[in-house]
Design goal:
This protein has about 900 residues and is mainly beta. Helices cover about 10% and strands about 45% of the residues. Strands 55, 56, 57, 58, 59, 60, 61 and 62 form an eight-stranded antiparallel β-sheet that branches.
Length: about 900
């Protein structure tokens, strides 16, 4: 076989050798890379030739010398490898002789045996030996001296007995290289209280005389003290007073206190007798009785044993049911008409009906009826809220009352010609705007811009001061896989007879910085990517070899405008006017010796790939950033259910559904305002019917008040009063304000009212209302027509009463954690009205009204004041919706200040 001669005719090659991947040489078919035993450094290389074997560098071969290892082909010849006889012993001389390794010993050569306990190491008989190191003792009895081959001279601590030189210790022993006392001091107590016992480390026990208190054995001396090692008696005498004024007390030396009876004047504690004296060691009552006459005709006088003079009220009852009887000092019994006895006039209110909700004309007609009492005095006048009513001869009356937004309390007073009065009260809710609440149709009760969120420019981008929206987008972009920007092959074609494909892989980059700046209509975006690089692979066809290399750029910058708007409750985010620049351009480096042949490829990358990368980033980076910002804004829309705990024990918890949707987004240089339509709904469980949840209606001005953000904090939220009222309404609508009063909340001792076995139920006819529509613009919680039905025994008689209360109290909104709630001050208006009473209440309804006002109503108000009434969750944004990398993390408000702006409550603070 002639390997290099392609002219020898060996017949036609078989078909399998004609695929361009084999070589037909000397009548033999060689596979790609296969060599011949006769020429081990030649091989089949189809891209170079298919009719001969060509030199192939890098193939393994054997030069025939057993003392060489790793022989390799180079330029068609076998090049010997390195010798391999090193036995790793510094004390032998290694060589290869006659194909065998020889290791001759080296004597007296310096070496290192690896032990710190030898010195002057030299080779001897093929081994490294040295002289032992002399380790000097450290003169510490608590250490042992020695040598460690790894560390050298060492002095490890021991636990031998030792002496620390302290006469006040015994049983010393070495510990951690030191002599420590055994903790067993000698017995130094001489049992003499007039010496102080101690121990001196240098000499031992000491007993020093003292002046300490002591006892000389005589109980009649006090303050005994030591002196000159003796206990001397004190100068004070023992106090022997037994506290009995009828005994004389003294002290007998060596014995103690003694007493003897006397006959001195004394006081036996009973003021009803005077001139008490001692006898037999006890105080005896005197012979003269105490006079208790106070010369007051309104009292009966007597002395109560062991108490003193008593003056009971004299009875002035004249037997008349319609008079009030009492006694005036120096004048005697007095009598006048009693309005509480049921003898005076009565009055009732008929319109508007109890628990009414009204809209339309704020001038509401109030009507009722007044009746003269059994004292026969005619009705002189009727007023409603201090307005004179038109009074008919039959007792009917009416008057127009101008309504304000919210709960309107009514107080009607009838006065007869005898000066007797009667009153009736109730309340109604009024507004020109109401929200019909339906849990199945929450969209119909949405409050336009019911919740607004202000994000200052620093919240979008704080320039690295704290985590902001730009940081979130930056983290998102840094997590992107930029390999998806390139769809391989990025190009293909042919050049100089070679077909090629260009592939871009392993795209890498350094830090990516994102800057966001609010501007009118949206945001200015600036993205900078540092240290861009990618691998280049160019597989060739034909005679050309495959080519690889790298492409890199110091910086890629993207500038764009992000337009933000809202459509159908969804954020619309669009990147416009994007401009991508590679600074200065893409640099290409081709690997291997063939690089100089492919300047056309370098030119293509530097000219064409630069534009390709810019177009790819502009086309594909925009959509993820648009989605990230859209998801962030969409996250402000709240849709969650919150279970509000029971208002009081016995009440029912209510599940409220908080629902919001985007309604508007406005950007300026100062930041952004995100408007949210909001509502709160709950399934109906109350039996009462009203117009709906009350609307503020601009305090009936016909003008919707704007929300002004003070921009005190980096983030602020404005909640409209209509949303807060929907929270209270949903609590009522869901049955949370109808319940029995838990017996544990009712005081057990109601004897001062003559009441026992009290049971009460509460039912709010109207939902509570939050409003600041009053002359002082003070935020108030108004509760109208709270029904209290009570049964009890009054002085043993079964009784029953139904009353209605109206309460208006100043309110303050506070933020706690992620909640906003109400705190109430002392009520400014409390009205109670008896609707019906039966049983033993004749003449006692006013007392029961006072009892319920003092005992039951405070329980309800305390529950409201303690925050059990309503709380509103402050929305947070789930960052997991932006990118899975942020799962479990939220953008949450940190409220630092709560303010009011017209009909809005503004929460100001920062964002975490």
């Amino acid at each position: 076989m002639v390997i290099g001669d392609a002219l020898v005719d060996h017949g036609p090659p078989p078909p399998e050798c004609l695929d361009g991947l084999h070589c037909w040489v000397g009548g033999r078919c060689f596979a790609d890379g296969e060599s011949d035993d006769g020429l081990p450094c030649h091989a089949c290389v189809p891209p170079v030739a298919t009719d001969r074997l060509v030199p192939h560098d890098g193939l393994a071969c054997d030069d025939g010398d057993p003392c060489t290892l790793g022989d390799r082909c180079k330029a068609g010849a076998c090049v010997p490898g390195l010798a391999g006889c090193d036995d790793q012993n510094p004390c032998t001389d290694d060589a290869c002789t006659g194909g065998k390794c020889v290791h001759a010993p080296l004597d007296d050569a310096p070496c290192d045996d690896g032990s710190a306990c030898t010195t002057g190491d030299v080779c001897h008989a093929g081994a490294c030996v040295g002289a032992a190191v002399n380790c000097a003792p450290d003169l510490n009895p608590c250490t042992d001296d020695g040598c460690d081959p790894a560390a050298g001279c060492v002095h490890p601590p021991n636990d031998d007995p030792c002496d620390d030189g302290n006469a006040c210790t015994a049983g010393e022993r070495c510990q951690d290289g030191e002599c420590r006392g055994g903790g067993l001091p000698p017995e130094c107590d001489d049992h003499d209280p007039c010496t102080d016992d101690g121990c001196v480390p240098a000499s031992g026990c000491t007993n020093i005389p003292n002046t300490a208190p002591c006892d000389d054995g005589d109980p009649c001396t006090v303050g005994d003290r030591c002196r000159n090692l003796e206990c001397e008696p004190g100068t004070d005498a023992l106090a022997c007073d037994d506290g009995n004024p009828c005994t004389d007390d003294s002290c007998t030396p060596g014995v103690g206190c003694a007493t003897s009876d006397n006959g001195m004047p004394c006081d036996d504690g009973d003021p009803c007798f005077e001139y008490d004296t001692c006898a037999g060691g006890a105080c005896r009552a005197g012979p003269v009785e105490l006079s208790c006459e106070d010369f007051d005709p309104c009292t009966t006088d007597a002395c109560v044993p062991n108490v003193g003079c008593g003056h009971a009220d004299a009875s002035c009852d004249d037997g008349e049911a319609c008079t009030k009887d009492w006694c005036e000092p120096w004048l005697g019994c007095m009598h006048e008409a009693d309005p509480a006895a049921g003898c005076g006039p009565t009055i009732r209110l008929d319109k508007p009906p109890r628990g009414a909700t009204l809209k339309g004309d704020p001038n509401v007609k109030v009507a009722g009826h007044a009746t003269q009492g059994s004292d026969a005095w005619p009705i002189a006048s009727v007023t409603v809220n201090d307005l004179a009513a038109s009074l008919e001869t039959d007792g009917d009356f009416s008057v127009p009352v101008y309504s304000s937004q919210g709960i309107n309390p009514l107080l009607a007073i009838a006065t007869d010609d005898g000066g007797q009065t009667a009153q009736a009260s109730r309340s109604y809710a009024f507004s020109t705007k109401w929200y019909a609440i339906d849990a199945a149709k929450p969209s119909q009760s949405m409050v336009a811009d019911g919740a607004n969120v202000f994000l200052a420019a620093e919240t979008w981008d704080s320039n690295g001061m704290h985590v902001d929206v730009a940081s979130l987008v930056e983290a998102y972009v840094n997590a992107m896989d930029f390999n998806t920007l390139f769809k391989n092959p990025v190009t293909s074609g042919s050049y100089a007879g070679c077909s090629y494909q260009v592939n871009v892989t392993n795209v890498k980059h350094g830090q990516i910085d994102v800057a966001l700046r609010p501007v009118a209509g949206g945001l200015d975006l600036d993205v900078v990517m540092y240290d861009f690089s990618a691998d280049i692979a160019v597989p060739m066809g034909g005679i050309c070899p495959d080519v690889s290399g790298t492409a890199s750029a110091p910086m890629i910058e993207v500038k764009a405008t992000i337009k933000v708007s809202v459509s159908a409750g969804k954020p619309v985010v669009q990147i416009q006017n994007a401009d991508v620049r590679i600074v200065p351009q893409v640099e290409v480096v081709v690997d291997g010796i063939w690089g100089f042949l492919f300047n056309w490829l370098v030119d293509w990358f530097q000219d064409t790939l630069t534009g390709y990368i810019e177009d790819a980033i502009e086309a594909q980076m925009g959509a993820p950033i648009e989605g990230a910002i859209a998801d962030l804004l969409a996250g402000f829309a709240l849709d969650q259910a919150v279970t509000v705990p029971a208002f009081l024990p016995g009440a029912t918890p209510v599940t409220l559904a908080f629902k919001t949707k985007l309604s508007s987004i406005t950007f300026t240089d100062a930041g952004s305002v995100i408007g949210l339509a909001a509502t709160v709904v709950a399934p109906k469980k109350t039996t009462h019917a009203v117009l709906g949840s009350i609307g503020r209606a601009g305090c009936l001005s016909g003008w919707e008040e704007p929300l002004y953000f003070p921009a005190y904090g980096a983030a602020e939220m404005g909640l409209h009063d209509d949303v807060l009222n929907q929270v209270a309404y949903a609590m009522w609508w869901g049955g949370g304000l109808k319940f029995p009063v838990d017996p544990s909340l009712i005081p057990q001792d109601l004897s001062e009212y003559g009441v026992a076995d009290l049971k009460a139920d509460v039912d709010f006819l109207l939902p509570p209302i939050v409003t600041s529509c009053n002359w002082s613009e003070q935020l108030q919680v108004q509760v109208g027509e709270v029904g209290v039905h009570a049964t009890f025994d009054m002085f043993g008689s079964p009784s029953e009463i139904l009353m209605y209360a109206t309460v208006i109290a100043p309110a303050y909104l506070y933020a706690s954690g992620d909640q906003i709630g109400f705190a109430l001050d002392v009520p400014t208006v409390v009205r109670m009205d008896v609707a019906s009473a039966s049983g033993g209440l004749e003449g006692g309804a006013d007392k029961i009204t006072g009892m319920i006002e003092d005992q039951i109503l405070p329980v309800l108000m305390d529950a409201i004041r303690d925050g059990a009434f309503v709380s509103f969750p402050i929305p947070s944004v789930d960052l997991g919706k932006i990118h899975p990398a942020f799962a479990g993390r939220k953008l949450t408000p940190a409220v630092q200040q709560v303010m009011r702006s017209f009909g809005y409550t503004v929460l100001s603070g920062s964002v975490n």
